[in-house]
Amino acid sequence: MEIRKIDPTLPSLRSLIEGSQSHGAAATSAESDHTLGVAELSHPAVQFFAAFEDETALGCGAFKALRDGTAEVKSVFVSKAARGRGLAQRLMDHLASQAAEAGFSALVLETGSSLCPEYDAARALYERLGYAYCPPIEGYSADPMSAFMRISLPVKT
User: What one-character DSSP code corresponds to residue 10?
Assistant: First the structure.
């Protein structure tokens, strides 16, 4: 398994990005769905990564630079065929490592709240990784369908 920084516009990644968008659309209302598509994932402020086994993309994730020196985790998604193998945790660990190396002070994220049972496993993973619940992050307002979380990153010396 290899995780690489990669261009999200590549056709081999389309099914992962569309899977992420479909999951978000099915799990919550349109107003509360903050899943990014290819155009947003291609923005210069976003670093996009995909996990590969041989040349098959099994999962993806990204982070987006925010003005306060933190980075927002975006579009973490694992294909159905690859679930249950710890890939989401590996992606999250990789995002944290890359964000720390880039000098960000923390990773923050928005995910579905307890009103969205489709996000129970994601919230449990983030809690196990040490993320703590926090107020809404940059670009968001309070929303009963959203939970906001944060983890500090090691200071780069």
Answer: S
